[in-house]
């Protein structure tokens, strides 16, 4: 009976209240015509075009607006003078770089540091103060972009920088003859250490070499293609041959290690901050004349030299570093003076009553020294601008103050 009732019970259909709701249809995505219609309604397209025009005008005028505003600031930095040569658009400063200057407390190094900081770079000076002086860079000690490290480049050092100016080495006969072994170690081991650093961190490296690599030249004036006439065992060879070896190392690191290198061959340079008694002819003459001592001329005084003011050299070093040219490049003033002619210029500048005394010439002293700077003029667009009669009084003012403080 129950079985029959079970079979005869009707099947219950779901009531409309419990029926599943139909799925809502997804709204159709707006097609291209819908977007165009949206932009055309209520002048929306006009406002979009007007906004694009305003933005474009702002970005086009931005360099000129920032330049005009910066000119009214008391600490505004000058524009980078080598922008056109280094691929930087005119009116823009290059991005600030981290730079190390070995020997940066010395005569040339300290002037280079001044210019690098002036253009906005961060500078680390590495110097052992053998010939450099803290006084040369003391005016930068409060600058947050300046750091001074007492370190001898003969020992390795690890820094993170973009540029390496390698100036560390005694450059005057009095200093490099004082400890010739130390001089050759600085030229060889110091250069090896700084080139190794450049390779490790991918920095560009500039070696300051010297006109002394030409020795007592048989070619006059000297071109960069001249290989020189150097005594390899003389009293000056620790410096002459040391710099020639440094150039060899620099080029080998370039060819074998892919290091970006530059080589500058520096001719006689003078200016403020030179050592008072370093044995170089300009500083000797100026110091002796200011102290009312006879100016010492070695030999017959007919040896020739060229003299460039330190600001000209610094401009050449910076132009070379930022150029695409490896080198070597002669950096010097092609003007030529005999020792007697130089003594006469010093007399006219300091004391017309100054006297001259002659002494025997030193060993291996070059008879002629004059750079051919055609390569630097053509490729770096560089040449000296300060004449001896313009630059010498600036050096005399500095020397007079320092001698009066002795």
From TrEMBL:
Pathway: Nucleotide-sugar biosynthesis; UDP-alpha-D-xylose biosynthesis; UDP-alpha-D-xylose from UDP-alpha-D-glucuronate: step 1/1
Tagged with keyword Nuclease: no
Keyword Isomerase among UniProt keywords: no
Cross-referenced PANTHER family: UDP-GLUCURONATE DECARBOXYLASE, UDP-GLUCURONIC ACID DECARBOXYLASE-RELATED
Record's compositionally biased regions (Low complexity): 7-28
Keyword entries, A-Z: Decarboxylase, Golgi apparatus, Lyase, Membrane, NAD, Transmembrane, Transmembrane helix
GO cellular component: Golgi cisterna membrane
Listed cofactors: NAD(+)
Pfam families given in the database record: GDP_Man_Dehyd
Top-level taxon of origin: Eukaryota
Function according to Swiss-Prot or TrEMBL: Catalyzes the NAD-dependent decarboxylation of UDP-glucuronic acid to UDP-xylose. Necessary for the biosynthesis of the core tetrasaccharide in glycosaminoglycan biosynthesis.
Protein name per Swiss-Prot or TrEMBL: UDP-glucuronate decarboxylase
Compartments in which it is found: Golgi apparatus, Golgi stack membrane
Recorded GO MF terms: NAD+ binding; UDP-glucuronate decarboxylase activity
Family recorded in the similarity comment: Belongs to the NAD(P)-dependent epimerase/dehydratase family. UDP-glucuronic acid decarboxylase subfamily.
Classification of source organism: Eukaryota, Viridiplantae, Streptophyta, Embryophyta, Tracheophyta
Enzyme class: lyase
Main localization (coarse): Golgi
Signal sequence interval, chain numbering: none
Gene source species: Panicum hallii var. hallii
